[in-house]
Amino acid sequence: MGNDSTTDRIAKVLTSHKRQLAANKMVAAYLRDMILSGELGVGERLPGELELGELFQVGRSTVREAIKVLESERLVEISRGAGGGTFVSMPQFDDLEESLGTLLTIMVREEGITIDELIEIREILEVRAVEIAATKRLKDSIDAMKASLPDPGTEDRLTVKEFFASTGSFHLALLSGTGNRALAAFGRPIYSALHRRAVRETAGIGVWRHVLDDHRRFIELIEAGDAKAAADLMRQHLVGAKPIYQYLSSEEEEKESKEEE
Q1: For the chain, what is the total number of helices (H) and then of strands (E)?
Q2: How far apart are CA 13 and CA 54, in angstroms?
Q3: For the structural domain made of 3-88, what CATH number should be given?
Q4: How many CB atoms lie within 10 A of CB 91?
Q5: Domain map (residue ranges) of the chain
């Protein structure tokens, strides 16, 4: 066969593949809309691949790929064996955190979201969060904040990663102290994405020691129920941390640039 016929055959395959991809998205989009609108309720079983294929006038493989998309979005669960099938599922808070965390990490790395923007989001969330925590004074949360602090006198022996793990645990416990699961689920990935970008073994921890003092003061204010003072301290705390995050992030960007040369 000549080049023209080969090109034609390849073009037909590509066209068919594109149509299948478009059909996958179409089926997934219709089912997703029905799930999000409540037309398909949690626990409801979807028709089988053959029946869905007839309804959408597509092949079983197209339906199968569409279901895989919905499964990856935690909108359906597939159960095997007798009585099995595809069922509409309820996403959990862990799913929300995982998905948001993955997207944020990629967008921060590719500069779709800047360090400054992440810090601004933290200011919006955590100033209000510490106010609520000081109002509710949840014992489990306060205990977790206390547990996040290193033992007195050990600060100088902490590695940078250990130090950030400590501060991370504190802020996550603080978010949990709001008693608002959704707020905590949104806040944790933001904090994690920021730290993944900023934490570097080469950075000295001297500039971070004041952070521990702030954390101890936060605990005192929350236990005392002083929401206003806690909110004021959080504003100062995040303003002070901003140039440090910017410095550590710019250091990493310079390192990555050199590695690419």
Answers
A1: 10, 2
A2: 23
A3: 1.10.10.10
A4: 12
A5: 3-88, 94-260
Q: Per residue of the chain (261 residues), what is the pLDDT tens digit? A: 445 675 676 567 666 666 666 888 888 999 998 998 888 899 999 999 999 999 888 899 999 999 999 998 889 999 887 778 999 998 777 777 777 878 887 887 777 777 788 888 888 899 999 999 999 999 999 999 999 998 877 777 777 778 878 888 999 899 999 999 888 888 888 887 777 766 544 445 555 678 888 999 999 999 999 999 999 999 999 887 777 666 665 555 555 545 445
Dihedral-angle region of residue 48 (phi above 0 means left; psi in -120 to 50 means alpha; beta otherwise): beta
Q: Would you mind telling me the total number of residues written for the chain in this entry?
A: 261
Whole-angstrom Cα distance, residue 215 to residue 220? 9
What number of CA atoms fall less than 13 Å from residue 147's CA on the CB side?
Answer: 10
CATH class of the domain whose range is 94-260: mainly alpha
Query: What gap in Å lies between CA 229 and CA 131, rounded to an integer?
Result: 9
Question: Which of 198, 121, 128 lies closest to 167, judged by CA?
Answer: 198
Task: Provide the whole-model pTM.
Answer: 0.66
For tokens 């999000």, the residue is 36
> Residue 180 in contact with residue 136, Cβ under 8 Å?
no
Give the angle subtended at the CA of 21 by the CAs of 18 and 27, to the nearest 5°: 140
* 3-88 and 94-260 have identical folds: no
Tokens of 59: 């092949």
Backbone angles phi, psi at 164, to 5 degrees: -70, -30
Residue with tokens 């995040």: 238
